[in-house]
Design brief:
This protein is of the alpha/beta class. Helices cover about 50% and strands about 10% of the residues. The protein binds adenosine-5'-triphosphate and magnesium ion.
Length: about 700
């Protein structure tokens, strides 16, 4: 089993990569900088493990996003063909769903449980905690999520609470948990926390999973949190057959509970851990890589690393100063156009001139707007990733709630949305009475609706309307269960939307027909996509739908809560990408623009009056620096770093100070159009005059 793969070298793996790919029988950590082929190791190792005798179903590869999982599935398919289909390639959350659907009964969770989104959680918390103040509720949500990510339940959270405020939140958490149990629902954190509980407390389930998985591979390991690591440990058991790949310099989800301790702990928890380091970067030119290495230099290192490129020096990194956000967008348009025309850079040659070869990265979602406007004007096709998810749109949520209710009648949040959207003459008083009745008798709203004694608290007319709704949901559920495959589902969806008159609902609810039409287009797109997921795909040449393995509509509904982005629409692939830095992790483009590199945006504001101490500010700065490193290292051939002389802060315009990371890139001054340090000096002087806060910010900027 341990003979090296004859195909490794031919398939394009260097010696260190081959070492990692061929190490099959114990724990392995590949620790290396950006673009060094870590993800490639995972994909090849999937093939190697199967070649060595594991069944595809015994191999699990865990990625950070659904999109990364889809890409890995595709790459695995081109390496090992049909067998790739059996391999479990998914995110930790999707793995959690699978575990809970299979084994959740031992935790009293029905297989058809619902997955609540952030809005559902907010409204349950408002109710459980008795507050409508958005900021307060958000604070509860964050705290509860943090506790869950630390593996604490409400009782444990209360026991360790540091003050009255935390004790109150722990009690709200207890009520929140009760409601989730009643609704047969879980939140996103539960998708990791409950599988952990399953594995920890139920030996038979643990044995089953350990025996069924021969090897677990984890990409982006540096961004796992405490509970994910515990899940991994219990999945692989004493044998520790896993491969984790990661880069401590790219840990950018600390704010969501990811911890580098997981990297620190690996060698302690697995003394026989094999650590493989990769040193060659295959992605970027030397100029780009040098800038990246210079930026990350000041950050403390968990493990020392060196990275080199053999792609040549390449084009110098450009620092571009822009007057305003609008001006920046114009300059990016001009840059894309001239790179495509080949007038700007000789060295880039005729390659990399498709729209898809370009990407603009920024720190915060709202920064996409000026680019979208300028791209539309210049007729540049683009997509925005990492922004508002398709599933966050009101119309899509409406439909998802209806579908959730069909799968899980106990899902009260879904019930509330479905019964009121579109309006069907069931008012708040009726619903409040139904709610009281349900909680008095410990029933779900749906169960309460059919109770014989409901007539004692509601007039006959109201009961009649509720019954009508209940019967319709039952009928729809029956139809959805019978629906098999794409064509059936299409018919089901269209009948249902007609039944509830959803198009009219959209037009009635919007002032402008244009907006309503846009919403309706989204609905159509959603239906098309859902129908395809029921077992069809589109033929690349004819565009016709080919049905493959047919699934029922109800089965598909159970998978949608996890998808944060829809699969790319057809014909949309050759487009410029606009993306947040966070969403760009693991990806690469020939030409990258880092937009809005000014103090306050990147690094993001560090000096807000939230009582942060110097330590936590220093840590946040380190995470911002890693974000810059991630941004720079997405670029393969050219990189432009923009900064703004003036930027919007709220409604006012303020002077922009070039990001300290620009100076840290230590670019050859001759390559700069203007020396940012001169600007910084001038701006610092101007700033210093203005306010104490500005003086502090300027002083924090090291020249
Ligand atoms: P990141 O840290 O950004 O996630 P990574 O370490 O996962 O990066 P990959 O995405 O696997 O790196 O690889 C970066 C690029 O280098 C890809 O285009 C990949 O195909 C290429 N590459 C990786 N290894 C080799 C190799 N041995 N020979 C040729 N190209 C390679
Ligand atoms: Mg990667």
């Amino acid at each position: 089993m341990s003979s090296p793969s004859p195909t490794s070298a031919a398939a394009g793996l260097n010696l260190a990569q081959q070492e990692a790919v061929n190490y099959l029988h114990g724990p392995c950590l590949v620790l290396a900088g950006a673009g060094s082929g870590k993800t490639r190791v995972i994909t090849h190792k999937i093939g190697r493990l199967i070649q060595a005798g594991l069944k595809p179903e015994q191999v699990a590869a865990i990625t950070f996003t659904n999109k990364a999982a889809a890409e890995m599935r595709e790459r695995a398919r081109s390496l090992i063909g049909k067998q790739a289909k059996g391999v479990l390639i998914c995110t930790f959350h999707a793995l959690g769903v699978r575990m809970l659907r299979q084994d959740g009964q031992v935790l009293d969770l029905k297989p058809q449980f619902s997955i609540l989104d952030s809005d559902d959680v907010t409204s349950i918390l408002k109710d459980a905690g008795g507050s409508t103040d958005a900021a307060t509720v958000r604070q509860w949500q964050w705290t509860i999520s943090r506790w869950k990510n630390m593996g604490l339940n409400a009782a444990a959270a209360e026991a360790q609470a540091s003050g009255d405020e935390e004790r109150v939140i722990a009690r709200i958490m207890a009520r929140y948990e009760e409601r989730l149990t009643a609704y047969q629902s879980v939140d996103f954190d539960d998708l990791i926390g409950l599988p952990l509980k399953l594995l920890r407390e139920h030996e038979s389930v643990r044995n089953k999973w350990q025996q069924s998985l021969g090897h677990v591979l984890v990409d982006e390991y540096q961004d796992t949190n405490v509970t994910q690591y515990e899940v991994l440990k219990l999945l692989v058991g004493m044998r520790g057959r896993f491969t984790a790949v990661g880069d401590d310099d790219q840990s950018i989800y600390g704010w969501r509970g990811a911890t580098l301790d997981n990297l620190r702990r690996l060698p302690q928890d697995y003394p026989n851990l094999k650590v493989v380091k990769l040193e060659q970067n295959y992605r970027s030119t030397s100029a780009i890589l040098r800038a990246a290495n210079n930026v990350i230099g000041p950050n403390p290192k968990l493990y020392p690393k060196t990275l080199f490129s053999e792609l040549g020096e390449g084009e110098p990194v450009r620092v571009v100063d822009c007057d305003s956000e609008e001006h920046e967008a114009e300059r990016v348009v001009a840059r894309i156009q001239s790179l495509r025309a080949g007038t700007e850079l000789q060295a880039v040659g005729s390659q990399f001139k498709e729209w898809k070869d370009f990407c603009v990265l920024y720190r915060a979602n709202h920064m996409a707007k000026p680019f979208e406007k300028a791209f539309r004007k210049a007729q540049i096709p683009y997509k925005v990733s990492g922004g508002q998810s398709f599933f966050d749109r009101a119309e899509i949520k409406d439909l998802c709630c209806w579908l959730r209710l069909l799968v899980n009648n106990n899902d009260d949040p879904a019930f509330m949305r479905a019964v009121t959207t579109p309006k069907r003459g069931i008012g708040h008083t009726t619903l409040a009475a139904l709610g009281n009745f349900a909680s008095q008798y410990r029933l779900s709203l749906f169960e309460a609706l059919f109770s014989n004694s409901l007539g004692s608290v509601l007039p006959a007319k109201a009961v009649g309307s509720l019954h009508e709704f209940g019967r319709y949901v039952n009928d729809l559920e029956y139809r959805a269960r019978k629906t098999m495959g794409t064509q059936d589902s299409r018919a089901f969806l269209s009948d249902w939307l007609k039944d509830i008159d959803y198009e009219k609902h959209l037009y009635d609810g919007e002032d402008s027909d244009k907006l309503a039409a846009a919403r309706w287009t989204n609905v159509m797109e959603f239906c098309d996509w859902m129908a395809l997921r029921c077992g069809g795909h589109r033929d690349d040449t004819s565009g016709a739908v080919v049905e493959t393995e047919k699934k029922s509509m109800l089965e598909v509904v159970q998978t949608i809560a996890l998808l944060s982005t829809m699969s790319e629409r057809e014909g949309e692939k050759n487009v410029v990408t606009l993306s947040t830095l966070h969403a760009a992790k693991g990806l690469e483009w020939p030409h990258v623009v880092l937009a809005g590199c000014v103090e306050g945006l990147l690094p993001f504001k560090l000096d807000d009056d939230d009582g942060s101490n110097a330590d936590s500010i220093a840590q946040r700065l380190q995470e911002e620096r890693r974000l810059m490193y991630v941004g720079i290292t997405r670029a393969q051939r050219t990189l432009a770093v923009n900064w703004l002389r003036k930027r919007k802060k709220g409604r006012t315009l303020i002077a922009g100070v070039p990001s300290r990371f620009i100076a840290e890139m230590a670019l050859d001054q001759a390559t700069l159009k203007e020396d940012p340090r001169e600007k910084i000096k001038a701006l610092r002087a101007e700033f210093a005059k203005k306010s104490l806060a500005a003086r502090a910010a300027a002083a924090a900027y090291p020249l």
